[in-house]
Predict the 3D structure of the following.
Amino acid sequence: MKEIKEKHSFLMRWTHWVNFPVLTIMIWSGLFIYWANDAYGISIFGFSLIKFFPQWFYNYFHIPHRLAEGMAYHFLFMWFFFINGLLYIAYTIFSGAWRELIPKRNSFKEAWLVLLHDLHIRKTIPPQKKYNAAQRIAYTAIIVMGIGSIATGLAIYKPVQFYWLCWLCGGYHFARIIHFTLTIGYVLFFVIHIVQVALAGWNNFRSVISGFEVIDSSAKNKSNNLPVEKVKEKNGND
Amino acid sequence: METTNQNKEQLSVEQKIKRRNFISFGVFFALGGTAVAGWKWLLNSPDEVAGVTANAKAPLRRALNKTELFFRNFYSNKHLVKTYPTSRAAKNVRVNSLIGINDDEDFDAKNWHLAVKLNNLQTLNINIDEIKALPKTEIVFDFKCVEGWDQIQHWGGVKLSDFLAHFKLIEQSKKQYMGLETPNGKYYVGLEMECVLHPQTLLAYEMNNQPISMEHGAPLRLIVPVKYGIKNLKRIGTMSFSNARPKDYWAEQGYDYYSGL
């Protein structure tokens, strides 16, 4: 029998979907700013592995010579990014939703088993509530990263007025590197996130828009008789 | 009897799902559409009316000004720029822009003087020796360019606040802004008086203990560590005071007027 199971609160869904375009605009305008001093890359033993970013990339996204414009967009949309993030964190704390979210002591060990399962190396997955261990780590890390972006961003925006913050971020020069690295982190997160959502399927995806999942309660009762480790919850993965 | 009940219940669950899907996806796409419309409005919004600032989209300029006003609440002349030992200063000091310098073929360094506009009628001319006679202040700090690079540099000169006091420009420094221009008027900046009076703001004539080179703004340039490099005007020709924002080269190119750090 079908049953409606509440999954995501309104505020979680709201902040999630507001964040997506806002962060996209922040990354886009951030590229305009970064282009003016595109000093970063990855090299091993002096051999340049990756340059951030190659010319074709800049050309494709029409990045060059738009620093002033980039700053104007960046310093407007930073407010939406900040307020939206603050709203989510405040909600998570006051609603008690953080209990479902922050990693537990065994989460790091379990996350490894989740990874093996996702890679089809292992058949079973440890029992979970709303989020599995890997999700707990990922979704907590992304919030910490957001806080990091705000902090390093403020440190390079007003390094004299917020000198203590600039110092905490390792100085002006280093704060800019962290700010950039976190952005690359968001892009990597996004790629994995999209793949996981696609694999988890429609029911899971819908829950981030409509708030609920549909579960088959009769199947659930049956599965309760199985040993815990063999239960694969119908909650989906992402 | 029981089967019908179950059917009814099942139907109602099915209906509930449908209804909630309809409402939530409807709201989702409506809000998404609104967001796209809002974004298009911003992208297609006209440029500001050109004035002291220009070349930014009108709503973005409003936001820039409002944001800067908010952050100026945190500004204090007690907040000093971090300084470094002289040994950390770069030997090869970066030259980024020569506007107002390499476009001035008539410039004659020997006859240079700083023209301080006291009011609409009077101008006070000050030569470099008078300026060098004032107490010298040195600073080694991390110079920050709006482009994103930074470099530890060593500058020496007279504190702008000392300069204003010595030449009895007290009345003038009660105005809200100072305007500086190169001798040919090709490069110009406006500065809030607070930043002008910041204890680390210098009229510099030395770099790495040597007289400043032409490309770094000889004979006299501004070093204002609480601002991006674009405000650190090279080769000062004229100095003026006003309560309205003086014209500013990069603010006319779409950059934030204040560009403060």
